[in-house]
Write a structure and sequence with these properties.
The protein is an alpha/beta fold. The protein folds into two domains: 183 residues, Rossmann fold (3-Layer(aba) Sandwich), CATH 3.40.50; 116 residues, 3-Layer(aba) Sandwich (Rossmann fold). The chain is 39% helix and 18% strand. The chain is built from eleven helices and eleven strands. The chain has a seven-stranded mixed β-sheet, with helices on both faces. Strands 7-8-6-9 form a four-stranded parallel β-sheet, sandwiched between helices. The radius of gyration is 21 Å and the shape is elongated. The structure holds adenosine-5'-triphosphate. Adenosine-5'-triphosphate binds next to α4. The site of adenosine-5'-triphosphate has 18 residues, from α4.
Length: 326
């Protein structure tokens, strides 16, 4: 395998707080090892449009505390074509890039896997998504910050909820994963979480109402994962209006608020460890793996495994919400 002299780093897909801390760590760890670093703007799109800039140690000064990503991010359909990836590869080689570190969610890791299959290049992925839906790591970069944002918002809603007799549906992100909804519910003391993972055929709304959330309380906050199957918070509120008109349901959709803000200490530490871990992995000759943390230890997982296994929420946590909301 050719020795690495220059690495490229990019962020792709949805932005997540802590991506900047990861970019900083990758850049500084690479420089520490004497490698040159190129920053690729706008994810895979920047490889195709040749937006590649030299990165030095001070290119990443004063960013560890900032949300978003200084490299910008994009979703790029052209990269999904053989021709698009050929262009990306040609630009990458012309810029002298020998290896790539990509930071993003499952789409980004899928793109990396396909790129690495088409061309013989070492790629290391870092899990950067608020959804926490990648296996190969216990937590993803951005998840902790998003969770804290949710808790802060629900705390505020609680003040108004307790002043009325209402059912509050708070919709949070997570795609097909219920981590934000379930752990957000535990951390904010919500009455229930309605998540994709517990769709074993049971009607979670019916269970909630049948359990009589008002038996001991005059209001309830329910965290709802965005989910086409339920229609999210709006879908549930519509059902309440039609099927349980005795209840007054209100909807709050936290939306993109959840992606923003300064990363928590936990996210900064995770991103710093994983960023340095990506460089270490490349130094060891690892390729086409995602770096993650399991039980506190750094682990490498082949792209195929990180993508194929579904990480599921702890079912004991589903029980925990129920137990603690009586
Ligand atoms: P988030 O989880 O925050 O949405 P993500 O990384 O999953 O982040 P996606 O939009 O799914 O976000 O993927 C990011 C980019 O990865 C895509 O815009 C595309 O450029 C690339 N990508 C995704 N899937 C593929 C694929 N099958 N082949 C090639 N490239 C892909």
């Amino acid at each position: 395998m050719a020795t690495i002299k220059t690495i490229g780093v990019l962020t792709s897909g949805g932005d997540a707080p802590g991506m900047n801390a990861a970019i900083r760590a990758v850049t500084r760890a690479a420089r520490y090892n004497g490698w040159a670093v190129k920053g690729i703007m706008r994810g895979y799109k920047g490889l195709i449009t040749n937006e590649i800039v030299d990165f030095h140690s001070n290119s990443v000064s004063n960013i560890i505390q900032r949300g978003g990503t200084i490299l910008k991010t994009a979703r790029c359909r052209e990269f999904m074509t053989v021709e698009g990836r050929q262009l990306a590869y040609d630009n990458m080689r012309a810029a002298g890039i020998d290896a790539l570190v990509v930071i993003g969610g499952d789409g980004t890791i899928t793109g990396a896997q396909i790129f690495a299959e088409q061309f013989d290049i070492p790629i290391v992925g870092l899990p950067g998504t608020i959804d926490n839906d990648l296996s190969g790591t216990d937590v993803t970069i951005g998840y902790d910050t998003a969770l804290n944002t949710i808790v802060e918002a629900v705390d505020k809603l609680r003040d108004t909820a307790t002043s009325h007799e209402r059912l509050f549906f708070v919709e949070v992100m997570g795609r097909r994963a219920g981590y934000l909804a379930l752990n957000g519910a535990i951390a904010s003391g919500a009455e229930a979480a309605i998540i994709p993972e517990s769709e074993t055929g049971d009607d979670q709304l019916k269970t909630l109402i049948d359990n009589g959330f008002r038996k001991s309380k005059n209001s309830a906050i329910v965290l709802v994962a965005e989910d086409p199957a339920t229609g999210g918070a709006m879908g549930l509120a519509r059902r309440v209006e039609e099927e349980y008109p005795q209840y007054d349901a209100r909807v709050t959709i936290l939306g993109h608020l959840q992606r923003g803000g300064s990363p928590t200490a936990a996210d900064r530490i995770l991103a710093s460890r994983l960023g340095a871990g990506a460089v270490e992995a490349l130094k060891e000759g690892q390729r086409n793996i995602m770096v993650g943390v399991k039980n506190g230890e750094m682990v490498y997982t082949p792209f195929s495994q990180a993508l194929s296994k579904t990480k599921t929420v702890k079912s004991s946590n589903i029980e925990l919400v129920k137990m603690l909301s009586i």
